[in-house]
Write a structure and sequence with these properties.
alpha+beta; eight-stranded mixed beta sheet; 2 helices; 17% helix
């Protein structure tokens, strides 16, 4: 794990949540994709953001912390070999690739990279 990436929080009402985080907490809007059910807020000058996920579009959303890794596919295989059970196969996002899992206590975590390459069937796997 190289760094924190983002912190995801599920919300019942995206517009009210945007008002709370933007107006009341004074956080700056990083991006707003209401059709996709997500809005993000900066915390100071840090790159990681708080990303609000509309529960009407993401009904299974839980508070989640993502970490940056060099290559998701490699980290996925390495962690799976250590017994980590993932919620899905790695998937594409706007900035690269990602995959999520839960720790033994039910906390949701994820890994992401900033690689634009598609996840291919011949993805890098440990030999």
């Amino acid at each position: 794990m190289k760094d924190y990436d983002n912190f995801f929080l599920p919300v019942d009402d995206l517009e009210s949540a945007k008002e709370f985080y933007g107006q009341k907490l004074g956080l700056g809007l990083k991006f707003d994709f209401p059709d996709a059910g997500m809005s993000a807020f900066n915390v100071g000058a840090e790159e990681p953001a708080i990303i609000l996920k509309d529960k009407s579009k993401f009904p299974d959303a839980k508070p989640t912390i993502w970490f940056v890794v060099e290559v998701v596919q490699q980290a996925y295989h390495s962690l799976a070999d250590k017994g980590i059970r993932f919620l899905s196969e790695p998937f594409r996002i706007r900035t690269g690739n990602a995959v999520e899992f839960e720790d033994p206590f039910g906390n949701r975590l994820g890994i992401t990279d900033y690689r634009k390459e598609e996840i291919a069937a011949k993805a890098i796997a440990p030999e």
